[in-house]
User: Fold this.
Amino acid sequence: MRELAEAIGIEAPSLYNYIGSKSELLHSICFKVASTFIQHLDEVERKDDDNIKKIESIIRFHIRMILKNFDEVFVANHEWKHLQEPYLSEFLTLRRNYERRMIAIAEKGIKNGEIKSGQPKIIIFTLLSAVRGLELWQNNKKNISNSTLENNMVTLLTTGFKN
Amino acid sequence: MRELAEAIGIEAPSLYNYIGSKSELLHSICFKVASTFIQHLDEVERKDDDNIKKIESIIRFHIRMILKNFDEVFVANHEWKHLQEPYLSEFLTLRRNYERRMIAIAEKGIKNGEIKSGQPKIIIFTLLSAVRGLELWQNNKKNISNSTLENNMVTLLTTGFKN
DNA sequence: CCTACCGATCGGTAGG
DNA sequence: CCTACCGATCGGTAGG
Assistant:
């Protein structure tokens, strides 16, 4: 909180005229990010694209969110653990739900033969890991534009690195 | 340190009969893990497998390390930031080197036509992100054996999820 | 929005 | 290996 105050140019105790507490701040960031992702998933589910397109659209959304809202996404990805109950449980429920809905898309895609057979859970968690990890190296991709980054990642994940 | 002491069943100050400091402990874990990965990369480079096989072997090693040495790998992945200088810089140099060597393998593979053309940096960082993220959900894969997990992830990353 | 300050926690030392 | 304790840091309050 003292760092945050200094960044704004006020003393730490003055922060408490604007926010209720540190945990309230954490709460609002985590749930704001969560609802953005959920809203996009809602839209994807409503469309009648094929399941490959749906997953691709979700992947692209994750990549864009990390590139454009880095700080908030980072906090939501790393600091949610320090959420206080009942918010911690609530957040985890939202996340589990999100994952389940993605897994359901993968399952339909496998049934249709669009997606390779295999464990849908592994597919989805691996895809989510791959895009999430971008937050760790996004500052390291000098000379590569955001759209090249996005397209290369999507190609890699949909068709692999093998030629 | 107090938690650690309790887990062992002694008082916190007694820990200091066994270790020099908290940061020394962190240092030894981070560099032990780093050297294990580097040693494996050395071996991979010495073999004359094709470049696809080399990358696959590295991916498999990462997955196995996470599954079998979870705690240490987790610390090395997350707490290295708190390493004190000059160890922080040293650690980062090791990691950058490791990444560069993997990227060099990808570059050769692209030149040979084994690997899809594209930015080798993006390929490698995405692969590393994908396997690293396993640490976040490895406790979530009930009913899936380690070898199924490993094989499914490798298939996904080498050939994509699209059928 | 600030000064003054509090209680809790944390890594670690002294002395045995 | 323990008791007693220290200095630094942190989220936050009182009172203006």
